[in-house]
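Dear Dr. H.,

I hope your travels went smoothly. While you were away I took the liberty of generating a structure for the chain from your last submission, since the lab meeting agenda had it listed for discussion. I wanted you to have the full record in hand beforehand rather than looking at slides cold. The sequence, exactly as received, is reproduced here:
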Amino acid sequence: MVKNKNKNKKLINNLFNDVLSARSELMFRLGKSYGTKRDLYKDLGYVLIPLFADYYGKYTRQDIASAIIDAYPDACWGKTPEISEDEDSETEFETAWKQLVKDKKIFNYLLRADKAAGIGRFSCLLLGINDGKRFDEQTEMASELLYLQVFLECNSQIDKYVTDEKNERFGLPEIYQLKLSNGDHTQAVSKQVHHSRVLHIAEGLLDNEIEGLPRLQKVLNRLDDLEKVVGGSGEMFWRGAFQGLAFKAQEGAQFDPEQDNVKLEEEIDRYVHGLQRYMKLQGLDVQTISPAVSSPQGHVDVILDLIAGATGIPKRILIGSERGELASSQDETNFSKRVESRKINHCEPNILRPFVDKLIEVGILPEPKNDYTVKWPSPFQESEQEKANTALTKINAIVAYANS
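The corresponding predicted structure, in token form, is as follows:
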């Protein structure tokens, strides 16, 4: 028995090592051309193998990166879904769910966990329940959800995987190592936590069920390009908007020995950096150097177009601007369709239903007599202006029909 268990554990470790090895080899080939003679990633300053800290730094410090992470979760959870068992009357299950949503701010935590998952490869949502057992023990029955806590990938480590090939969770996490902060957030304590107390959230899964694709990974190079262009333009304006000054000695000029080089530099420094608008110079002609400042708009637009194309987030939504009524409406419609698809294919099956099912399984929510349904609000809700335009169109059509 022990021998088979060790064999399965070795199989799992070998599988993950093979996956990591293949990914590393692929990463090292990025940016290479002419065999290995030219390394574009190195020459352009791109990060070859980005870590969680790279993504988290972008999210916390770069505006467009933050908008990319937040756009889809905010759109999906902005209007909360309804969970119902019976359309005719409110059941015990529905009443308990509504009260839980109100008391524990459920959707707020699901939104935060969704955002956290997009920063890295996954996030964890810890369910604090009153079952009287330790964190590392499997939960069975409980009566109350005490709290919820969101963990970023950097604070979530998988300690142990399920190695039993006959188990439905084969290859999935069994024990997590979560960094729990104390009450005043001055230090963190690592705790082993059983998977039954954790909701594992990952998006963009490809070759495994654990690690998704960070939301910024596809556009990380473009975000670096954007920093170079915008930051470089700021430096260009700082250096170029103020016209340079050239000091030329007049022919045959005699300099006052009391006005040495140090005093001359101090005089110029007061003019350039202070409020003094005159200079006392002797034997010098001052000539202005014309600044050369160009607009970065064209370069920024190209980069934003590429980012919008890769993320599926319209540029006007990404930067929060309007670019004409027709383009605005079309962008809104296309984005709403993507949001609707994400609700059905990710938010519901990977986040909301697993969360509700966990609460039902341990007894915090009563077992529904019938299968519960999730109804997402329609994203295609007309604004007051759109409603007025629709009504006007109908009236004009009726008038035209009556006159004919």
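Two observations you may find useful: The first strand starts at residue 32 and ends at 33. The chain is about 50% helix and 15% strand.

With kind regards,
E. W.
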